[in-house]
Write a structure and sequence with these properties.
The protein has 251 residues and is mainly alpha-helical. Helix content is 84%, strand content 2%. It has a two-stranded antiparallel sheet.
Length: 251
């Protein structure tokens, strides 16, 4: 029930009636002053009934918009959680890439050491015919080992490159997703700013949109909506929208 309707009914119910019961009937007699006061209150209620109904409709519209804002805020909260999860996944991917790069670096170092050993063995083969056969066996063994290591190394490098390419693709996709979510957040706060402006016109507009006779509770509700929207816009990095909401409400 509208606040002003309750106020009128309370005025009527609290009027002190000077009444006298008529014997043998259920009727009572009231004074002329009491009757005139009741008639004036009833007339006031009939005159303002349409305005009160419009105010009820506007209050309901504000409630509906507030609920819509809460739904948007819940979606934004879910999107922020998704972004945080994606950032954590990016960090994990970066750690894996660094580990794989370290493994690749170790393999390169090991291969370089093996190549040095081969060069030393080749020198020994040239300087000693007596140990030629024995050295040849060592040489063949080392060459075989190096070839196996080289094959394994090349395979590991290829796998790392494929894995890095996949991670790079995932990172780009995540970046696009983050950009899309950030744009969605901006559009949401832009819509929120427009709603705050529209609601604020009920109180602060100097023209036909201003509602006269707002109750204290209605006035505080309008200001609270603007404060709420400006606070969260500032928290999420949309200072321009927050400033627009506050300036629109004449704070």
């Amino acid at each position: 029930m509208n606040f002003r309707i309750v106020e009128l009914k309370q005025d009527i119910s609290t009027t002190e009636l000077q009444k006298r019961r008529i014997p043998f009937t259920k009727s009572v007699v009231v004074s002329a002053d009491n009757l005139q006061e009741i008639e004036e209150q009833a007339k006031t209620y009939r005159v303002n009934r349409k305005n009160l109904q419009k105010m009820n409709e506007r209050e309901q519209a504000i409630v509906d918009k507030t609920m819509a804002l809460e739904i948007r805020e819940n979606k934004i909260y879910e999107q922020e959680n998704n972004i945080e999860q994606q950032y954590r996944e990016l960090n994990e991917i970066s750690v894996e890439i660094r580990q794989e790069q370290a493994i690749q670096k170790d393999l390169n170092g090991y291969l370089a050491k093996l190549e040095v050993k081969i060069e030393l063995l080749e020198e020994e083969l040239q300087n000693s015919e007596y140990h030629n056969e024995r050295l040849k066996e060592k040489y063949d063994l080392l060459v075989s080992t190096i070839n196996q290591e080289r094959i394994a190394h090349n395979k590991a490098i290829n796998e790392c490159q494929v894995h890095i390419a996949d991670k790079d693709k995932s990172i780009e996709e995540l970046k696009l997703t983050i950009q899309s979510l950030q744009q969605a957040n901006k559009e949401t706060y832009e819509s929120l700013t427009n709603i705050v402006k529209a609601v604020g016109m009920l109180k602060y507009d100097k023209g036909k949109y201003k509602v006269a006779g707002l109750s204290e509770e209605q006035s505080r509700l309008i200001d609270a909506i603007a404060n709420y929207g400006a606070y969260w816009a500032e928290q999420d990095g949309f200072s321009d929208f927050a400033k627009t909401m506050q300036e629109n409400m004449n704070f």
